[in-house]
């Protein structure tokens, strides 16, 4: 983004933040300015840039310092839980994967946002699906910072040769796999035993009209619901791909980057992945890793359907921002959120870091439209996305599914959903350890 745009953004933040952030200094640096520590997920430096700009915009009311968490979402959760369980007051702000919000809030680790004006400021204009992940027990605890969804990425030449239209409303996984098989090509997915695999399975179950657990807010009393027609339909897709010639050789160990490598290679045909892959492909061209012709061959469409007559439910990802409940600077942290969660911040972060916004208005910005020609599709997909189960026992639920469904080649539509439900029931009841 151009420096002129940054100056315009900073000026906008300054107008909003100075009044909101003009709180009394209460410890911190030698000059009396409170330092807020923001634990962030790894990115390309975009969060650190926002931290610096919001520090400047506060007019000396606070300074934000960032600490980087591990790469994997599971490891991020583990580090934060250990610190917060010890009531670590150094966690003023945290970037939190949405599935873990309920667990953290239920444990008393997050400071609720209760003032009506603040609740409105952090929720107005936010897309519905990410907003579902922001509350617990009727309180706003972690407003969405950015949201995410997966699209279907396809090689135009392969689709044309196969005579299929991935942008058609009724395009299914079966059509996708058959098209790749017919041309001797591969389909990139996330099949390693990690959270990305759970994302795929949850999207398939949701797209088939089901859910992994019923009444997730019931915690340990929630009932597994994956052993149902929707779970069986999801298992059929996983098994169909895993046992087909369209499955990449590294399916059992593939994450987002492995799927991208398959897709950009000579055998690439289709891929489900997050929007970052578009900018990453441009970088691959610039570095000489792929030719311009490969980039020009990339098309995009909504997440594929499980059933032709039922709209898909794309995956929901992203990051929410929360205030640590043991912070010594709650008012400064709240003021920092007002700056970090502004529309202007969302525009800059989406353009510079490649992570989609949670607020609908961001997608109308010319800079976003220029950087992402599929911006409208991303917004629509996020709005209709299906969150993973919102439960304080999400870690147990996710691990139960991952263990029961891995490797993909062993998934059986009749057996696997039933085994998964049985295993999950025992784990939730404390009768079996993960």
Q: Keywords, please?
A:
434 residues, alpha/beta, D-Maltodextrin-Binding Protein, domain 2, 2 domains, five-stranded mixed beta sheet, four-stranded mixed beta sheet
General description of the model:
The protein is an alpha/beta fold and 434 residues long. The chain folds into two domains: 3-142 and 318-383, Periplasmic binding protein-like II (D-Maltodextrin-Binding Protein, domain 2), CATH 3.40.190.10; 149-314 and 389-428, D-Maltodextrin-Binding Protein, domain 2 (3-Layer(aba) Sandwich), CATH 3.40.190. It has helices at residues 3-21, 46-57, 73-85, 101-106, 116-123, 128-132, 156-162, 173-182, 195-207, 229-242, 256-264, 276-287, 292-296, 330-340, 343-353, 366-371, 375-383, 394-405, 416-428; strands spanning 35-40, 63-68, 93-96, 135-136, 139-140, 144-149, 151-155, 186-188, 213-214, 223-224, 268-273, 298-301, 316-323. Residues 1-27 have low confidence and may be disordered.
């Amino acid at each position: 983004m151009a420096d002129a745009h940054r100056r315009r953004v900073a000026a906008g933040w300054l107008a909003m933040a100075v009044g909101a952030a003009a709180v009394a200094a209460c410890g911190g640096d030698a000059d009396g300015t409170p330092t807020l520590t923001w634990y962030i997920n790894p990115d390309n430096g975009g969060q650190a840039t926002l931290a610096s700009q919001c520090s400047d915009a506060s007019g000396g009311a606070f300074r934000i310092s960032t600490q980087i968490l591990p790469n994997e979402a599971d490891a991020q959760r583990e580090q934060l839980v250990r610190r917060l369980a010890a009531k670590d007051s150094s966690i003023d702000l945290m970037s939190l994967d949405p599935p873990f919000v309920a667990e953290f809030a239920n444990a008393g680790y997050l400071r609720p946002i209760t003032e009506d004006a603040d609740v409105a400021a952090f929720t107005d204009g936010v897309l519905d699906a990410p907003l579902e992940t922001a509350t617990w027990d009727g309180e706003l605890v972690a407003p969405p910072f950015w949201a995410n969804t997966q699209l279907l990425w396809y090689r135009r030449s392969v689709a044309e040769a196969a005579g299929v239209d991935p942008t058609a409303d009724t395009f299914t996984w079966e059509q996708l796999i058959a098209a790749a098989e017919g041309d001797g090509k591969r389909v990139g997915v996330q099949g390693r035993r990690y959270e990305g695999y759970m994302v795929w399975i949850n999207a398939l179950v949701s797209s088939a009209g089901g859910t992994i657990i019923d009444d997730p807010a019931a915690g340990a009393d929630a009932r597994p619901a994956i052993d149902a027609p929707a779970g069986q339909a999801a298992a059929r897709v996983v098994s169909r791909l895993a046992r087909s010639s369209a499955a990449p050789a590294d399916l059992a160990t593939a994450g987002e980057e492995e799927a991208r490598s398959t897709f950009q290679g000579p055998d690439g045909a289709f891929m489900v992945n997050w929007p970052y892959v578009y900018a990453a492909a441009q970088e691959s061209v610039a570095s000489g890793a792929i030719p311009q012709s490969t980039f020009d061959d990339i098309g995009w469409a909504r997440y594929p359907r499980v059933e032709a007559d039922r709209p898909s439910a794309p995956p929901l990802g992203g990051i929410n921002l929360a205030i640590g409940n043991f912070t010594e600077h709650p008012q400064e942290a709240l003021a920092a959120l007002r700056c970090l969660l502004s529309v202007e911040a969302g525009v800059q972060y989406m353009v510079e870091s490649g992570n989609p916004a949670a607020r609908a208005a961001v997608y109308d910005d010319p800079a976003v439209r220029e950087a992402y020609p599929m911006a409208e599709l991303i917004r629509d997909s996020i709005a209709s996305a299906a969150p993973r189960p919102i439960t304080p026992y999400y870690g147990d639920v996710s691990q139960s599914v991952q263990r029961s469904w891995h490797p993909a080649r062993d998934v059986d539509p009749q057996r696997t959903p039933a085994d998964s439900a049985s295993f999950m029931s025992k784990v939730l009841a404390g009768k079996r350890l993960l």
